[in-house]
Amino acid sequence: MSEATNTILIDDIVAAQMAELFSALGDTSRIRIISALTVSEMNVGELAKLAGISHSAVSHHMRHLRQMRLVRARKDGRHVYYQLDDEHINDLFRCGLEHVVHG
């Protein structure tokens, strides 16, 4: 069997969605936010402190990450807590980190 027959072909819509996903991950602040969320859910203040950026910048990133279904929010009184949307996001982050660290 040739290598070409083992290739997964995707249509333009799926290719565009994947490009948008990887684009969303193409920001160092968003990567630091996702890294923090692999440990536990956090609110904007906690994420701002860990990522070293302003609360408004975190809120902006969280809005984008929610639109991409990478994170989800849970409201508790006046605070909104964020967590990774599902285990796929954690896996994607871990695979990327392993690739970068170990080559």
Detailed description of the structure:
By secondary structure, the chain is an alpha+beta fold. The protein is 58% helix and 14% strand. It has five helices and three strands. It has helices spanning 12-24, 28-37, 44-51, 55-67, 87-102, and strands at 42-43, 71-76, 79-84. It has a three-stranded antiparallel β-sheet with strand order 1-3-2. A hairpin with a 2-residue loop joins strand 2 (71-76) and strand 3 (79-84). Helix 3 (44-51) crosses helix 4 (55-67). The model has no long low-confidence stretch (mean pLDDT 93).
The number of distinct helices, counting runs of at least 4 residues, comes to 5
User: What share of the residues does DSSP label as strand, in percent?
Assistant: 5-15%
> Biggest sheet: strands, sense, closure?
3 strands, antiparallel
Broad structural category: alpha+beta
What is the total tally of β strands? 3
Give helix and strand order, one letter per element, not per position. HHEHHEEH
- What multimeric state do the chains show? single chain
**End-to-end distance, in Å?**
29 Å
CA-atom Rg in angstroms:
16 Å
Describe, in short, the structure shown.
This protein is 58% helix and 14% strand. The chain is of the alpha+beta class and 103 residues long.
